[in-house]
Amino acid sequence: MESCKHLDDLLPPEGEGINFEIDLHKWYLSERYGYDVGRIFAELDYLQHYLPAYAKGFKDCYCKLVCKDNQNCEIYQSYLIIMEINGRNKRK
Asked: For an engineered disulfide with 37, which of 41, 57, 60, 63 has Cβ 3.0 to 4.6 Å away?
């Protein structure tokens, strides 16, 4: 499967967005546990529990609404198929 031809342009701003999300996640975890959990713990927890949803949200927003190449993009078309199958499975 090909990679997204826009990925190099997207990574710096998305990296900043993910860093913000991890910092916020660190704050929430620290509040919950009553002490500073540290950046590494927050990163690992975020990557395990929240990054897949973040990636889905990004695909829903950027690929679907912004990218002008989405009709010719193998990655986006595969994503649509997966979402359709998941939707059917939830209705069963």
From this structure: 41
> Which tops the pLDDT comparison, 33 or 87?
33
Which pair of tokens denotes residue 25? 């996640």
Give a three-class secondary structure readout of the chain: CCCCCCHHHHHHHHHHHHHHHHHHHHHHHHHHHCCCCCHHHHHHHHHHHCHHHHHHHHHHHHHHHHCCCHHHCHHHHHHHHHHHHHHHHHHC
Q: Return the pLDDT at 1.
A: 46
Backbone angles phi, psi at 11, to 5 degrees: -60, -45
Amino acid at 56: K
Q: How far apart are CA 75 and CA 66, in angstroms?
A: 15
In Å, how far are 20, 59, 62, 71 from 53, measured between CA atoms? 15, 10, 14, 23
